[in-house]
Amino acid sequence: MLIPSRMIRVILSVALATLLLSLTPFADAKKPSEKPPGVAIAAAHGLATDAGLQILRDGGNAFDAAIAVSSTLAVVEPISSGIGGGGFFLLHDANKDRDIFLDARETAPASATPQAYLDKDGGLDRDRAENGPWSAGIPGLPAALVHLQKHYGRLPLKTTLAPAIRIAREGFPIYARLAKGYGSRRTVMERYPGTRAVFLADGDAPEEGEVLKQPDLARTLELLASKGFDGFYRGDTADKLLAGVKAEGGQWTAAELASYRVREREPLRFKYRDWDIVTAPPPSSGGVALAEMLHVLEGWDLSKLDAAHRTHVIAEAMRRAFRDRTIYLGDPDFVEAPVARLISRDYAAGLRATIHPDKATPSDLLSGQPAPLEDDETTHFSIIDADGNRVSATQTVNLLYGSGLIPPGTGVLLNDEMDDFALRPGTPNAFGVMGFAANAPQAGKRMLSSMTPTFMLSPQRVTALGARGGSRIITQVLLGILGYDAGLRAQQVSASPRFHHQWMPDAISAEAGALDAGTIAALQAMGHKVNAGESVWGDVETVEWNRATHTLSVGSDPRNPVAKAEVVLAP
Ligand code: DON
After folding, report:
1. Which part of the chain is CATH 1.10.246.130?
2. Could you tell me which residues come within 8 angstroms of residue 311 by beta carbon, excluding any fewer than 6 positions away?
3. Which fold, 5-24+266-374+469-539?
């Protein structure tokens, strides 16, 4: 594990907090509590967690805090997400006892026809797919922040965006992952004058410990705060975005920006054992895959299996769900996916029947074509407030630093989410992701995603969780759900070792140390290929309210040294 001393510190502090809380008078309460004893936030950067906590102290609710956390992450993690990208926000409005899935996924501009991404030999033009203006979809995150404020928040955007604006203007210390990621993307980023103006402002590449200031981004956020939707999608910012995209040979129109809309969708719901799972519907593939996997796994008492057989059946469930992800799913506003069938128990029973108890199923025996292996960016945060409102949100610019393109004068690093479309049917993208007609690009369509913000509820326990890491987001959330179900606390869920199978490539990948030698040997004897020594991946940020013990707890991923999760008990 990367940072054992930090992990031990976090685990010890959680253990201490649990012990202290268990001594409170609430511990014996017979009735589950109606409201949490305080607030909790877990996010991938401490400045974002602090911004959210400040907004809660200032009288905001979880949705106001989400605006502060999301916008601050957009400033301090340009490598992962930003207002040039998109995201999904799963909300629970405690007052109305209602769950909402806010879809702020990017949309394809009309110029993004499949032909636009072919090279002269008819192959996929990877540079266009991953770098610069053609790789960028119309951003969704700014519209999500405005929508959250208008429909769910208590405080004005001027208040909730203030921390992000201040940090953009005054700067924040560059951390190792940011500097290292810049190194691997710099040749692309330094193609563009607007990007050079931000990242080479002091004359050289960002280094750990230096301060990164983003004054143009501060101004763009101020316009969003004062003018709302029109402050980004029309007027000065829009003009600069359009000019910057055009200057690099891309084609966006003013109408495409002005007509961007978030969508409120019904979350996907299903039961796993005693839990109600509330999660991401299409255009995320995550919820459907989770339902398939968990319904398949309900056929076993996982606690009774030895480690090798437990890993085997989980990997087989993963393999089957990922095959379906590739073939069936896309934007529900454009394609009709057989979601009801895929998440049904009957379908799962059929899949389960194809799993041999002691033998791996070779992936090419399942009909379909090869699929995903994405990388390790994006960001997730989870929030619960003292009224029981909750947010589980995952947001992204896709690959490291998105498209690399900042239209001059905006500070907005555009995403490269177009690569999540099947730009050329059957051709895997940089990370092995492929798809077919359901996920082909089309004007106004949203590209398929793996982001899986989730709630997991029982009469006693209420949790919010999610992760970053491309296709591995889905399996991190799966393992998180299985962990909570097995009785783990939030911090243990974040820290748990990870393994993953995604149908193609036909192998179980595992973090070094996640599987012991005996388990690996047993899996190999069953016919699994096991890549057991992979470096750690992902980032699970989770919060839990235990209504029976009247406690709040948080899980901050020890793999990420700048992550921070905190519980603040009501006075
Ligand atoms: O929406 C998705 O599934 C991806 N754009 C998320 C990307 C990610 O998590 C990390 N890297 N590509």
Report:
1. 5-24+266-374+469-539
2. 499, 508, 515, 519, 523
3. Serum Albumin; Chain A, Domain 1 (1.10.246)
> Cα–Cα distances in Å, from 313 out to 143, 300, 370, 460, 462?
41, 9, 21, 28, 27
Q: Find the 205 Cα to ligand 1 centroid distance in Å.
A: 25
Distance of CA 470 from the midpoint of ligand 1 (Å): 4
Question: By the 8 A CB rule, do 468 and 538 touch?
Answer: yes
Q: Which of 378, 433, 477 to mutate to test the pocket of ligand 1 (most atoms within 8 A of CB)?
A: 378
- From the CA of 431, give the closest atom in ligand 1: 12
Q: Please give the distance, rounded to the nearest whole angstrom, from the Cα atom of residue 246 to the centre of ligand 1.
A: 26
Tokens of 253: 């129109």
71 CA to centre of ligand 1 in angstroms:
18
- Residue having the nearest C-alpha atom to atom 9 of ligand 1: 470
Interior CA angle at 157 toward 154 and 162, to 5°?
115
Tokens 């470096």 belong to 535
Please enumerate in sequence order all residues whose Cβ is within 8 A of that of 510, keeping only pairs 6 or more positions apart, or say none: 497, 498, 499, 500, 530, 531, 532, 534
Active-site residue set: 378
| pLDDT one-digit tens code per residue, 269-278 | 999 999 999 9
**Section 223-234 average pLDDT:** 98
Pocket of ligand 1 (CB under 6 A): 374-378, 396, 398-399, 417, 420, 449-451, 468-470, 473
In whole angstroms, how far apart are CA 195 and each of 26, 201, 403? 53, 9, 10
Which atom of ligand 1 sits closest to the CA of residue 417?
5
In 298-424, where does DSSP find H-type helix?
307-328, 339-342, 345-353
pTM higher than the cut 0.90: yes
- Dump pLDDT digits (tens) for 440-483: 999 999 999 999 999 999 999 999 999 999 989 999 999 999 99
pLDDT higher than threshold 90 for residue 19: no
Q: Give the largest CA-CA distance in the chain.
A: 72
Q: Can you say whether the dihedral through the CA atoms of 51, 379, 560, 466 is positive or negative?
A: positive
Pocket test for ligand 1, best of 451, 500, 540 (most atoms within 8 A of CB): 451
